[in-house]
Design brief:
By secondary structure, this protein is an all-alpha fold. 73% of the residues lie in helices and 1% in strands. A two-stranded antiparallel sheet has the order 1-2. Helix 16 packs antiparallel against helix 17, helix 17 packs antiparallel against helix 18 and helix 22 runs antiparallel to helix 23.
Length: 517
């Protein structure tokens, strides 16, 4: 009974903090645009999670953890996107799990724990509620709960009586009481708002009481207790397995693979880099587009083969000839990825830039880095866990850096500068696609409209109509930015750019024409 009484305030305190955080989330987010408020809420949640853990306040690494979390949440100040939110959630999970000592060493293990934590997070509140009810029922908690409620009956009753008397005696208090509209309060209880509160409570509770799934916590650490000298019995490999996956088969496979990859590399050097004319009926765009993504799949399959063939401690990993062939093959795979990047660059030069093509560039770079790390793993004789951790670190740093890159502006600037209307070659500008990119594409579209208004006077009316549409979009955008909750550093920079636009005059004596109006 005593243990439950001491544990109950912890649950109550956590739930009280969760309710306060839900109220703050209601003020920040419900029916409001999302901007700097997401960063502020993340910092508040992290501070509450640290303050509610008694042992965390005296931990040595608390301030270092808070500083690391602040760095991870910085992308939310730059711009709120799915990527910056995902990085923030992962960082919050790492921080809160570290507060209760639930993290293991190694980046790969930490990534697995974070994934399990986030998957179980939505159900933590319901799980803890039924667990608390079960413990309370087993220890006779009903009487304790009745006593906790009963102590408030008399103070609240007499308080209401005194407040009524003060209202009758004091006109100011009477006026305050008249402002309380119970029906208006009841109208605030809306199903969507109630669902929002429950969603926030469930999410916040997981970070205020960070726990891992019970099945993961109950798995004992595997410790070898085999006596020295004891012979282990393993399933003997069959003769077929020895033939198919043996050292000789891997050696021959590497020779064949190197020859095939050398042929592919030679073709790319000839046609893509050497400028040799392609066969009849095949354009450079088709050649580039058909090969980019299959080559990446090929590189990934090659990486899987290398990891399987050169397992740490295997007979193949110690063979010098096989290691040299693997180095050559992985190097050719890196050349293959570089060739894929060049193919995609040629295709973009003809068919313009999009989000998916930028993602393909990033993905190809990560594949090339992963192949280089495979060589490092083999040369340094590291484990596969080291390789996984190194790749996760590379991926994390890349995604973090992407949060600060304005891809919409990058796409818009590239497509405008390389459009047929601006250069006389390439494809015509897809105005509607750039408009769908949002406000970050407006400065580039302004330059496009300005250029067309000066050089193509015959189509001024059509360009004026496009500018009118952008003006409507800008009006909605500026109205949204008047709410401080929507502030972000990227929006602040964009507004400064939009405010410095200079009107220009359309030829043939037309009135001044300002893009965006």
């Amino acid at each position: 009974m005593t243990s439950l009484l001491t544990a109950a305030p912890s649950y109550c305190a956590r739930f009280g903090v969760a309710v306060l955080l839900a109220a703050l989330a209601d003020f920040f987010f419900y029916g409001q645009p999302v901007g700097i408020t997401l960063f502020l809420f993340g910092i508040t949640l992290a501070t509450a999670a640290a303050a509610i853990q008694p042992s965390a306040l005296s931990a040595r690494g608390l301030w270092l953890g808070l500083a690391a979390l602040l760095v991870a949440l910085l992308p939310l100040i730059e711009n709120v996107s799915a990527l910056s939110v995902a990085i923030g959630l992962a960082a919050m999970a790492v921080f809160t799990l570290s507060l209760v000592g639930r993290l293991r060493r190694g980046l790969a293990r930490i990534a697995g724990l974070v994934a399990l934590f986030l998957l179980a997070a939505p159900f933590r509140l319901v799980h803890d509620f039924f667990r608390w009810r079960k413990a309370a029922r087993r220890l006779g908690r009903r009487r304790i709960r009745f006593a906790a409620i009963a102590v408030w009956v008399m103070p609240l009753t007499l308080g209401a009586v005194f407040l009524t008397l003060f209202g009758a005696a004091n006109p100011v208090i009477e006026y305050w009481l008249s402002l309380i509209d119970l029906l208006a309060w009841l109208k605030l209880i809306q199903l969507p708002r109630l669902a929002f509160w429950l969603f926030v409570l469930a999410g916040v509770w997981a970070f205020l009481r960070p726990r891992l799934p019970r099945s993961l916590r109950s798995i004992p650490r595997v410790v070898s207790s085999m006596p020295v000298g004891q012979v282990t019995t393993t399933k003997p490999a069959t003769a077929i397995e020895d033939i198919i996956f043996g050292k000789a088969a891997i050696l021959r496979a590497l020779v064949v693979f190197n020859i095939l990859f050398a042929m592919q590399t030679a073709l790319d050097v000839t046609y893509l880099w050497g400028g040799i004319a392609l066969p009849d009926g095949l354009t450079y765009a088709a050649y580039a587009h058909r090969g980019a993504y299959p080559l990446i799949v090929t590189a990934l399959l090659a990486a899987g083969f290398v990891l399987a063939a050169l397992r740490p401690g295997s007979t193949t990993s110690g063979d010098p000839l096989i290691r040299r062939l693997v180095y050559i093959w992985v190097a050719q795979n890196i050349m293959l990825v570089v060739s894929s990047i060049l193919r995609l660059d040629l295709y973009i030069g003809i068919y313009a830039l999009t989000y998916w093509r930028i993602a393909a560039f990033v993905w190809m770079g990560l594949v090339a880095a992963g192949l280089a790390l495979i060589i490092a793993r083999i040369a340094l004789e590291k484990s596969n866990e080291w390789l996984l951790s190194a790749n996760l670190l590379t991926l994390s740093m890349t995604l973090y850096a992407c949060c600060f890159i304005n891809f919409a502006a990058l796409i818009a600037n590239y497509n405008v500068e390389h459009s047929f209307e601006m250069t006389g070659q390439g494809t015509e500008l897809d105005f509607w696609y750039l408009r769908s990119l949002g406000p970050d594409a407006w400065p580039a579209l302004d330059r496009f409209l300005e250029h067309q208004g000066k050089t193509n006077a015959a189509s001024v009316s059509s360009y004026r109509e496009l500018a009118r549409l952008l003006g409507q979009d800008e009006a909605h955008y500026r109205a949204r930015q008047e709410n401080w909750r929507a502030w972000s550093f990227r929006d602040w920079r964009l507004l400064r750019t939009l405010d410095t636009r200079i009107p220009f005059v359309v030829p043939q004596g037309s009135e001044p024409f300002v893009p965006g109006r």
